[in-house]
């Protein structure tokens, strides 16, 4: 069990996480997600209590140094040691050649072991960074938007790798992420933070699924343009990577302006048939 | 025309080598501290370190004379207990050069350390490594161009020293008469031919040393340290 009860100039929260869980932290930028990870790792200061298993990271009388916390941390910008080869990046953390080989094999990076980080693609660098974070058999793995700089295909690939590694090593993992599909695929719990406080906490389905009532589809989007075509209005709305045209009434057109965040939903008309 | 002597050159290079080694050892921890600290005293130490750039060499030379002469407590201590004089000899030149060239070692190192990714250093701490291990295995190997610049510029700057040396060392042959002072004396006695030769040697050597540094740094930038 990991119990966190911390306060600093950004955070004020109380949280418990079960060992072996894969948890996502979500929220707007500036909400304190990264700060929470950094406080856990011992990179930022805070007051309160942090306990991981029976190890006290932080209390009124105790402050465990970052070096002694045994945490795995994956940064968005990889933060690899540029002067060392892929293999040396791992062995610098812990000179365990067997584990190093196993991790590089699991992430399909073994053939790159002698390469310098600068010669690798973003996805390859991040795989090395994930391997490096696991070299000390950490008690917690922290991923700070680790996959958000990668293209969608590479992201899916890395998500599979993370799932496999989590299955294999069963390390409690806390991941900061904005990507609902990533959260849904990988995690069993989402904690939403705003202004340093927890505002939502539950399963990805409960937290992320925005449909309610009898709506069958519901998307969040942004109005890009409203144009008049003959007697009707058409709004161009960006939903994720897609643009859609939606017919709106004159009253609705008056109400909306470019840049508004909107919910786009539809209710399907179903005819039910049942044997009597 | 007197015969060309190499003693002043040898002395210049000996002084510059020793100064560079001492300053490197002292400046790495200082520059590291300056680059990492969040202390409010940082500007104070930065200003102090940069002083030799703006102060006239005569001011530095004067203070060194005042502090290290046998009439001062420090000078008297070294004279009484170790039997060494600290001015008008080679040791005095080394001490003076270390003050005079300090910013040329500290500043490139500090900006090198500051240019390092903060996350990369933190990744090393998270891996359980101390500040010292991080400095040796991660920070220093990743600032090779800054290291080379600091070492070469310090060396070259010490070779090019004149005012401080004249004040603290005088011009004792094979003890404190370095190349720059020798040229000054030749001009004074109107031995222009030797002054030309000495100056040309200094000019060419300095140019090629700097050229070497810039070529190396240019290559490092292009290859991004790839071996």
Describe it.
- The complex is a heterodimer of chains A (276) and B (227).
- With 276 residues, chain A is α/β, with parallel strands linked by helices.
- Chain A has eight helices and 14 strands.
- Chain A has helices spanning 33-41, 86-93, 97-106, 122-134, 152-169, 180-186, 204-208, 250-255; strands spanning 2-7, 12-17, 22-26, 47-52, 55-58, 71-74, 140-144, 172-176, 189-194, 197-202, 217-229, 232-239, 242-248, 261-266.
- In chain A, α2 packs parallel to α4.
- Chain A is globular, with a radius of gyration of 23 Å.
- Chain B is mainly α and 227 residues long.
- The mean pLDDT of chain B is 90.
- Classes of the chains: A alpha/beta (276), B mainly alpha (227).
- Chains A and B meet through β6 of A and α6 of B.
Q: Please identify the top-level CATH class of the largest domain in chain A.
A: Alpha Beta
Count of distinct strands of chain A = 14
Overall structural class of chain B, as computed from helix and strand content, comes to mainly alpha
Binned, the helix content of chain B reads over 70%
Distance between the termini of chain A: 54 Å
- pLDDT averaged over residues of chain B: 90
| CATH topology annotation of chain B | MetI-like fold
Number of domains of chain B: 1
CATH architecture tag of the largest domain in chain A? 3-Layer(aba) Sandwich
Number of helices of chain B: 11
Query: End-to-end span of chain B in angstroms?
Result: 51 Å
> What is the ordering of alpha helices and beta strands of chain B?
HHHHHHHHHHH
The largest sheet of chain B, given as strand count, sense and whether it forms a barrel, is: none
User: Could you say how many structural domains of chain A there are in total?
Assistant: 2
Biggest sheet of chain A, in brief? 6 strands, mixed
Rg over alpha carbons of chain A:
23 Å
Give the overall shape of chain B, derived from the CA principal axes.
Answer: globular
